[in-house]
Amino acid sequence: MKTARKLIALLMALSMIMALAITANADNTRDDAKKQPSTGSITISNAQKDENDEDETYVAYRLFDISYDGTADSKVYGVTAGKAAYELLKNNDFGLALAETPVDDTYAVSGLDEDNVAQLAKFLSEKSANDLAGIPHVPMTVANGKATAEDIPVGYYFVTTTSGSLISITPASPDGTIVDKNAKQDVDKTADVENLSSAEVGKEITYTVTGTTPDTTGYKDYFWYVTDTMSVGLKFNKNKNVKVYIGEGLIGNDGKVIDEKLAAAENQAAEALVKLEGETYNLKKLNEKNEIVTDPKTVDANSFVLDLGSLFVGENKLAAGLDIVVRYSATVTQDAVQAGEVKNTVKLVYSNDPANPAGYEEGNPNHEVKNYVNQIVIDKVDADDNEKKLEGAEFILARAAMNADGTPKVDADGKPVYEYLEYTAPAAAAEGQPAVEADVAWVAEQKDATVYVTNNKGAATILGLEDGTYQLIEIKAPEGYNLLLEPKEIELSSVTTENGKETHAAVVHTETVENAQGAELPSTGGIGTTIFTVVGATLMVGAAVLFVTKKRSIID
Q1: CATH number of 188-371: 3.20.20.70, 1.10.260.40, 3.40.50.1100, 2.60.40.740?
Q2: What's the pTM?
């Protein structure tokens, strides 16, 4: 049996050496192979920056030579004993075989399958520059976001990308391109609301997360988790699908999503676009080991994990470098009033080591979108004594109605049209009735507006407002006081700028409303102006009598 094994090994070695040995009597086919290019180039298409934002340094190391058995497409890798690459790899434990050949000190290399390549890349990445110094190498030139090594001998190269890349350049394919597949990945996040900083109670906020499909060369399994966490005051709309779009040109050069492209995906008009939604992406969470947990008892209703990793590996994996757009929504709840803000945070967790399926890296943990919820506090006081608080004043809140294009509405006479606040307070579920969620709505009729009445401290609070300009209208004055003739205009803004720097915070605006004491009309039950009317009438009658008397005296 041992003799048979040796015979098989010898036959394999002889078949390899047929390609490695160069004879003087090469036939026409061999001459054709010789005419193939003996040099080529390597390009890294996405050269990275280091921690100091300087161009990363890349080096290409030629591990193995390439020889041919007579045709340009049939190649055999060889390494010479005593050289640095041989010394590094001769005792490897990840399946790379170095078989002796009849040529002195020359070994044929086999076992360069996907699994072994990933382990070889990891092995070499962990070596220092001194460890690799004896291997023929060339520094790569970095410019315009790319790194290149040109006019280099064909062969099998190791390139010092973030975690190492292996590439073969041959006479048949002399120019190779590498994507720095383990470059730092990340996503970005925005909130689609009319007011970029604030949001009112009951408002549905649509969130958009964008990223890029990764290069997963060397991976059998891959995870790519978008983890989302919502704060108190946000209710994830899990009854609405999380939508995922993947394709070319979904994101413009300004980083903004091109909605027309998404619309095409919705209509299935663009075959290059992939749209995923529904049951496949149920609520999940990650444990402390970044493993997905699906037990409903442990899943926070306001957090979820979206795992797209299966799309990036396997026979039908998506190409690297495509745009990813993820969209989902949440509604602002009454709890946001107490907190003053709602916060949504997203983080990317992804595989970073082909040789270690559990290995992972995290993107920037600070992708956070905040929206602020404002309120108005009415302080109703006596005009002559502001310490005297007035109870029983009634107010409604209005704002200018807007057209769909953002312009103010006007009526047939060209006068501004207003809409009025209707606020629904939250209520717990009653027997046979569901709970009522707080909501801010704007109605066209003043009679449908919510009326706010000042208490014995002269206060009333209007909750759940976004930034904007409002009109506070008094519809009933406290007993014994005059009604305000004009609304009070109030401007709310959660954004302030000082020395060119913006700061954001929820606004609690106190509006002091003074009322002067005055006589009540008779319809209110008091004597009102009656006494003044009687006295005035008496004086006018007396004056008329005196005038007539004097006139007669002159005539007489």
Answers
A1: 2.60.40.740
A2: 0.65
